[in-house]
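Hi R.,

Here's the chain you asked about this morning:
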Amino acid sequence: MKIAILSGSVYGAAEEVARHAQKVLETAGFEAWHNPRASLADIVAFAPQAFLAVTSTTGMGELPDNLQPLYFALRDQLPNWRGLPGAVISLGDSSYADTYCAGGELLSELFAELGLREVQPMLRLDASETVDPEADAEPWLADLSAALRA
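And here is the predicted structure, written out as tokens:
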């Protein structure tokens, strides 16, 4: 199965989690593709069969700048990926209660608009609690691998 990994990162933590997820998914036997500057055309050319989005939240609950063009292209063009599996990992800081993991919520809502099937609940990685977000994501990624095989 071909999995496209979309990522949005301000300081690099979400991108590191996305890279780690790619390695974990490849080790699990999936063909995972990650390009933090991907365009919609890049993703369509890859022809994904599943999606994983990994993003941080910035400002007043917005997506990082590097993910915004792709987000708006997906929202405007709504490619026909109805029924494909999708999942979201969101990085945030719970001390910002109003905007905690809001970037992930935006992507979760977009996946629903695209008709993607949420295969497991969004993983929220809290910067105020986690020292190693890559390691903290591993059990969830194992569950994602199992859900994609089901």
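One quick note: The chain has a mean pLDDT of 96.

Cheers,
M.
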